[in-house]
Structure formats: structure tokens, C-alpha cells
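Example 4.3 (complexes with small molecules)
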Amino acid sequence: MIEQRTTTIWITGDQCSHANSALLDCDQDKTTVLMIESIARARQRPYHKHKLVLIYSVMRHFAAELTELGWHVDYYAERQDFESALSEHIDRYRPTNFRMMHQSEYGVTERMTAALEGLPCTVTPHCQFISSAADFESLHKGEYSRVTMENFYRKMRVKTGLLVDGREPVGGAWNFDKENRNPPGSVHNFEAPLKSPADDTTAAVIDMVNKHFPEHVGVVSRESWHLAVTRRDALAEAADFFDRRLDQFGPYQDAMLSGQVSMNHSMLSAYINTGLLHPLELARDAEQRYLDGTARLSSVEGFIRQLIGWREFIWRIYWRLMPEYRKRNGLKATNRLPAFFWSGDTDMFCLREALTHVREHAYSHHILRLMVLGNFSLLAGLQPEEVNDWFWAMYIDGYDWVMVPNVIGMVLHADGGYVGTKPYAASANYINKMSDYCKKCVYNPKLTTGKGACPFNALYWDFLDRNQDSFKTNHRMQMSYANLRRKSDIEVQKIREQARAYIKAMAAGDRL
Ligand SMILES: Cc1cc2nc3c(=O)[nH]c(=O)nc-3n(C[C@H](O)[C@H](O)[C@H](O)COP(=O)(O)OP(=O)(O)OC[C@H]3O[C@@H](n4cnc5c(N)ncnc54)[C@H](O)[C@@H]3O)c2cc1C
Ligand code: SF4
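Answer. The structure with flavin-adenine dinucleotide bound is encoded below.
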């Protein structure tokens, strides 16, 4: 009976977890679960169609699962905006109070609770992270000090008991990063991840997304859909990763090969970020594979480091430094995002490959994000907020909390070195070593200036040259600056001119 349902639990698309803390300790007979699909929200950015399909389909499946479990769900499909659906819900159910789990994006909890027509709302803690603010804050030595990922990660290892023996790391080291950087060499037999085909619910969502958002990036059809939209299917994909690919995850974590989208990466981030999977359960499953002897320690540690180290570190930085963090532009980068980021139309093989992965799958693995797209954005001096917005719209796993520290901090070093003490800046040499891309490219990775020179090279040296004031006291950059100093004045002048020519060409919308 509607009138008996005094509490409404509002659940958003990135909170579709059965462990959602707002659901805990609630009387099902007195509670309604409210879920709203807002077309206006999805139009705020040109979100990739795959991302929209994933979120709406996850929501619809989650609502069905809750109903099966005895919850009364009031679901508003395909609504113009949140406000009209919310007001309809309040008119119909007349709840006396709301509950919701804290939102992952800064300021949204406050905006949502303010929209509740004066009704009280209990906000419960976010359930999809492992660390507490105290875990992070206790490592700070003062208001302006910074915490390294490595220190935070060690604390998380001890807190969770993962790969530790007492307080000591299993295998004698906390970090096997050095074993995680093999170039692909002749290893080309990366196994494809398990696929989860579309059911009728996902097919209906695909039609809906194609109807409302035809101009958004991406092509989506029932036939080509392969992502999980339920916890059951996401667990099956995770188990398949642990069975067939985890052991090889470590050695080739940084490697790139043309035509290979996932390599040995898990492709689980979209499921974790919508709540289908919990990072701790995945980390424990990975540890079990090491204990069983089915996956090597360097791979298991590498995977656990991403989940309980990097992911938690990024989350904590976001909440410590927002809201001003998003606006940071420490290197005063002002160049506009080139048109080819949207079209993929470039001769630079590595960029074209990364952009193709993103356009086709709303995904590329970490090194393509960091050392190809991110590195190029850093070297070319692209505006941080514009780069951030592009990543956020294009990636299936993109949310404000994870984009801002990764893009503003890790990639663009616009935060003054909070996420990383040294910028991830590299010339073509790195890409050539870690991939087969340069062999297929019209540009020459060995040339810095002149016809056919790889744009990464002049842009790299020009980046160092124009940012000397920011990095001259950074001891981790001394080797790079020593190499720059070895270049003659004429060489440096040529580099500057070549770099300016690339920037001008991009501004004019020309192809690189
Ligand atoms: C420019 C840039 C943008 C990024 N944007 C996002 C994003 O929008 N959403 C997102 O979840 N991750 C983002 N990352 C982090 C990382 O690249 C992705 O989590 C990872 O590539 C997802 O693919 P996977 O599941 O195959 O990861 P795997 O390589 O298999 O790693 C396992 C898991 O570790 C976690 N993880 C690893 N690194 C990070 C990190 N730096 N930050 C947060 N989680 C991490 C993810 O949950 C991931 O699923 C970004 C990184 C960069 C450099
Ligand atoms: S030569 Fe330069 S542009 Fe071409 S693939 Fe290599 S790094 Fe990329």
C-alpha cells in the first residue's frame, strides 16, 4: 500500500550495488526505492553511447533484481529530467523521509537533497571504497604536505591484510612494478575477454539511446553489445579474467599492440564504478589465485596495487582537494583540444589507434590513456578542463571523481605535483619501445625536427624547454634537463619552431 511507504531510497546509476548502504536496515514494507533515468542529465556532455547504454541497462536490471528480492521499486524510464519524476514520485507516495548513499561527485549529494521539497534525508556512507578519510589524512604531516601513492598503498595492504604476513609484504617487497613493464616483444597471444551478449532489456535501452542521442559518439547495436549489465555476468567476466588472463597481467601491463584493445587488462572498471563489483572482493579473489599457485605474485600484486592503491588514492585526493582541484592549471596550458580527438582523423599511428579504441569501445587501457593520449595532451599544452571533459565524456568508466585526479593530476601535472612528483612526459622513444605502433606510422620516431619527424619528439623537448621554471628544482627531472642542455642553441631553436608549427596546425584544424 502506497500510504504505508514512508521512506524513499533514491538510488542513482553508479550505485547499483546490493551492498548500497542506503538499503541496509530498512523495512521493505515501509520503503520505496526510487530510480530515475534523466535524458537531460545524459545530454550534459556528449557521452559515448556505450556508456549511456551501460548505465541505463545496469539500472533497469538492478531495479528488476530489487523487485525480485521484495523491494517496491518506483522506476521512471526515459524521463526528461530528474525534477519532474521526483515531484511525481512525491505526489504519488507522499514519503515522510528520504535516504540515499553519498554521491561520488562533489556537490551532487547537496544538490539532490536540496531538491527533496524540504523532506529530511539520511545520507549513508559510500559503500564502494575500502579506505577511510582517516587512513589518508593520518599520513599527511601538515595541511600542505602530500602523501605518496606508495605509502598509502602500503597502509591499505596492512589494513586489508592482502599479501601481507603480519606487517611484512609477502615475497619480500611491497611493489613488483619493475616486473610489470615488459615491452610486447614477440608475445602477441593475448586472450580476448569473456563477452556478455545483450538481452531484451539491453536491446530496448540500445534503441532508446540511439533514439535520444544520435549525435553522441559511438555506434551501438544489439549484435555488437558485449558488456555485463548484471552482477552475475560481471562476476563471470571477473572469474574468466582470473582464470585465463591474470597471470599474464603483470609482465605486459604497460605494453601496447596494434589491434589489441584489452591486452591482459581486466576491463572491470566500468563494473566496479557502477557498483556491480566491489574492489575488495576482486582483490581477495586475485590474492587467492596467488595462494592457489595459478597466478604469479608480480601479476597479483600489480592488480591489487591498482585496486586498493591507485583507485583508493585517486578517490581520496578528489575529496581532499575539490572543488578547486578541477580548475587547476599549474603549467598554464591554454591550447584548445584538437578536432582529431573527436574524429580520430590523424596520421599519428599511436593516437589514431588510441582514438579508435575509444570511439569503438569507450575504453582504452591505462597506458594508452596515460602515455599516448595523456602524454600528447601534456606535451601539446592542452587546456586541462577541456581534456578532462573529453575523457569524462568518452570513457565508459568515466566519472568526475576518477577523471579529475587522473587527468588534472596524473596526466597533465596541473595540480603542482600532488598525484605524481614528476610529469609523465615522454618522447617517441617510450612509445616505440613499448609498442609496435611506430613501425606502422608515417612518422619517424628517431627524428626530432624536419620532414617526417615524429611530433612527440619536438613537443617533448619544447615542453621541457618552456616549463623550465616549473621543473628546474625537481630532482627527478635533472636527467631530462641535462639531455636538453646538451642540445645546441640552433637545435633548440629548430625544436621550438617545429613545436609551434604543430600547435598552429592543430589550432587551424589541420591534420597531424
Ligand atoms: C587519463 C586517464 C583517465 C582515466 N580515467 C578513468 C576513469 O574514468 N575511470 C576509471 O575507473 N579509471 C580511469 N583511469 C584509470 C585506469 O586507466 C583505468 O581504471 C583502467 O584503465 C580501467 O581498465 P581496466 O579495468 O582494464 O583496468 P586494469 O588495468 O585491469 O586495472 C584494474 C583496476 O584498477 C583500478 N585502477 C587502476 N588504475 C587506476 C587509477 N589511476 N584510477 C582509478 N582506478 C584505477 C580500476 O578500477 C581498474 O579496473 C584513468 C587513467 C588515466 C591516465
Ligand atoms: S612515430 Fe610518433 S606518432 Fe608515430 S606511432 Fe610512433 S610515437 Fe606515435
